[in-house]
């Protein structure tokens, strides 16, 4: 089911199995048939841990979505609420429980994800329903294995909470999640970090380690280094349009919990004589992960190199099918037939990705996309970042989607280390008059998060950062990359550069730049029990866990994977984050009243 | 040594042995007659209540608690109600179930711990019978009331009473009943005459044991095995039926020829044994029945009680404590008369060796020839584990060690761990400790639990010795013992706080994994708040300190500890506690000093208490946030006047915050709302709530050009944006005439390419062409291409001699394009490239 999780450098399936075991144990605690009432937000992340079949095996007969009123009738013994610890959800649960038909002897249970909350229990008590629950439990689901080298907490609001609302709940969960990880994969001897949140998480981890005292894990460490990075150390990268295959799928269609929904037209089987009738109207849902061989191969390529890769693959597959003509003996035919399912899967996977690539190509070759990208690249290279940009003005005048505008304006502000008050006010006025004054709240939020800001000093240090870290590479090779800058066709993501420099030659070489970036940078060491010190074989790579606090883009992941695969890099990366994001979803999470916006 | 088999009795294929564990240290006048009795499994403590049925209501019976060896641990006069049943919990607490359904809990030293009730319904109807049972979920209680209904609690530490369904036709007490744990559920099995029923939470099912002797008219006794897997039924015809407890298979049926109902019956089957066997006790005799027709019978002189164990039955009488069990395989193989098993030969060989006889070599040779020496060693080791007498253990272990010498590569673990286990077992079996555990029981119960048991008995030094000896990880072993010791220590009222705190600190020091907060909680429960606070300071886990600090009303300290822990839920908890405790002013002041708590509380208020949020901002003079607050509120307000009022408040706050920009645009917003309303009233167009852009578009769409113009001037919309807007709006309306007029009104600030493109977008190339000529030279190519005029584009590109533009035009050429044009372009590109 989840074999692709165990192929990587670190077997992340261990984590998934641990999570599944815990789920089974909880379900068994509630004897008899059951119905689960879901906090809708959780269904996606849970899908990465357990399919419906697992629930069914443990007598889950029905599933409902949590909503006000009463729980729909179902002939089950137990009703289990799977919820995040949120007060507003507690009120709904209380309503559910109170309106339950007294004749029915259904038992109620609550499973809090990822953590039990005293505050919520207090609320249930105030509502007079706390006693109605047979079991109140927590399901500690912090880091969810997302792919063979990727863990995500799938917490959409983490960035907003940390940087806007000063609510560090998600950081606490991060620290707890890292402790769980260390319990399964051994203590991580080295911790590096950059940023306020990183510092906070590291402090909590060290504290928790002290608190656990002697109960230290006696496992040979799998990870050598942990790198904690605040998203606000690198605000620029997510704003830029990702140019890898996976990144573009996410930018254009949005990937949620490993699935993408695509317009169906391109995917219907064209049969002769059926022209045009019953076109599918449901969007096509596809799962995207490294379990699919072809996808694993092309996901991280620059989109301009995907076409060639697909046609190469097509040739290989048709050649493989041609083999059947060469098969003469029974044995050969038998062997051919045994490979058939695999080949057919490969062919359908190829068809899917060819369709997706066509869809994306229609967009990337449009003028709109090209113009937008040109402006982005101008900003990133520092061209005219201090003036009002006509392209942005024109886009506002044509009332292009607000998020597109915000992405560009924020990008200009970041690349100019803040905008002149006059320029900033001009943009803000244009936006408010065009999209509505209510967005003043959103603009305030962006300012608070540091994405938009007035220039305070005349000195713009972005060019220094760009030059020192080589954030712009003129001659990015998209087909056969030799540098991470290929993921943005020229721009090398700052966050990944920090990871790269850390591995070699070390952060000491960039002290100056680190000081320009927000928040402290630090290094901590965790004592290992004697006997657990790793003796490294010659040529054996180090394993680094890079944790992006506040989210990471697919392009950054692609860049880190590229570093892992570089022959002489000496480091392999596992990536963890609070949420996989792109500029659009990120900005949307920072908006106030975002439901009014498309 | 020679008499190892002296107490063995054969039964079918197996042997049974009865071993004396202790001569009881107690001095009971009337033995076990006329008293309630309860002995905890795994060699646990014994409780006795003499004369529970009082002769007069004022009589106070004596409750006595003993160890398994009969050493008195506590005794006290029973002053509460009539006790129906005694029992022990898994953590060695005594349960006294009273007639009125109240259950009193005591520790094994007779200290009262708590009480709870088995339901209000019981008070009237009374408890007729009760049973205490153990399951993976803890200790449970089942009762049957005066109305012959069963009530069950599976775990008394998490009390959830389940009233089981009625048994149809049950008019009196069932003749016998028992509790079963099956399919993760506790059920009651009961017999009424010859009928058997299973009661679970929802239904009562009639069941029939397969192959029960037809002579039986009533089931008078039943016993469930320790593991709940097997069931034995005793019928009035004197038959014992044995089978699986799911009543699917029958294992055996034996006729005892005794028709009197037995006093007690218990399973005596050791795990993995092939032999089902039960022990049945009457007043004068004891009988072991198995698979065969015969049975073993022992006479009984004294009133006795059977205590079922995992691998046998303990028999406690007024004077003795014995263990009756099937002889374990390894022991049988070695000690059975004339056994030729390798283990037996090895033992023999070692005996001869000690006698310095050459026969030792002969025996050894015989084993080695069959290459069974390894097996022989293993048999001796295993048998040693099952022997109770240390001398026999030693002999067997020596033989094993002797055999080991002749083996290379024999893994030492088994031998070493058996020696260790036996050393521990012999220590706890000692008369003074009195825990007669067998090796099988010990393995099942685990060291951790044994340590707990020792701790409950306050045998701290022994517990620590064992932990150190077995090298148990500190936090599982020594730390736990020390914690219990400390919890006990804080209850010593006669010592001063300082002394105790110091003593605890010295002994516990930095031992890993000590929970000081648990110790402190204990101290607080004993009313020693000061001591509790002193102890809490040692607690490294700040989160753990919070609940207790709150309980002790040290809320400020609790708040900073909660923040320190990083657990926001804990912070919330303390904050909500503080909110109820303090007056508003103090509460706000406290928060002010704790920014983390303050921002969390703000979050809380944002979702739950908007008004408090306002007060918070007010108190902090945070005008910017207040401004935002009013803006947010304005969008929730439906009435326009109120909305404008809120916006005015926002404006005031923004000015106070010296945020001129926000104030100005908010004023602008108010102005727009007013204009929109006025226009709505005058023109009947729905406008309120639209952005300025949308308002203008709507006005232009319905041809209110003058009004639009006015707004554009009033709100100082930049020319460029207004041109774009008007252009788009007119094209949308397909008002080409007006568009042309607009295009000519003055020089376009956005150029004329947008005109071309917008027209094309609305599929009107004819109109689009009108503007192509006005487009600046730089954009000419684009404009021509937009209207599909390839030739025009080519001319423009060639004229501009721009290689890039020529290429763009070329890329638009198709095979159907005029040849000459293509060539012209190619030539021009070549020339342009040369430059």
Question: Could you explain the architecture of this structure?
Answer:
Chain B: Keywords: Endosome, Lysosome, Membrane, Protein transport, Transport. Chain B: Its main location: membrane. Chain B: Belongs to the VPS16 family. Chain B: It is a peripheral membrane protein. The complex is a heterodimer of chains A (about 600) and B (about 850). By secondary structure, chain A is an alpha/beta fold. Chain A folds into four domains: about 5-140, Rossmann fold (3-Layer(aba) Sandwich); about 145-235 and about 500-585, Sec1/Munc18 (SM) protein, domain 2 (Rossmann fold, 3-Layer(aba) Sandwich); about 245-270 and about 280-365, Syntaxin Binding Protein 1, Chain A, domain 2, CATH 3.90.830; about 370-460, Alpha Horseshoe (Serine Threonine Protein Phosphatase 5, Tetratricopeptide repeat). Chain A contains 23 helices and 15 strands. In chain A, the strands form three sheets. Chain A has a seven-stranded mixed beta sheet with strand order 6-7-15-14-9-8-13, sandwiched between helices. A five-stranded parallel beta sheet of chain A has the order 2-1-3-4-5, sandwiched between helices. In chain A, strand 8, helix 8 and strand 9 form a beta-alpha-beta unit. In chain A, helix 4 (about 85-100) runs parallel beside helix 5 (about 120-125), helix 12 (about 305-325) packs antiparallel against helix 13 and helix 16 (about 400-415) packs across helix 23. In chain A, about 45% of the residues are buried. Chain B has about 850 residues and is of the alpha+beta class. In chain B, helix 27 packs antiparallel against helix 28 (about 765-770). Helix content of chain B is about 45%, strand content about 20%. In chain B, strand 1 (about 10) and strand 2 (about 15-25) form a beta hairpin. Chain B has a domain at about 30-200: Methylamine Dehydrogenase, Chain H, CATH 2.130.10. The interface between A and B is large, with 53 and 63 residues.
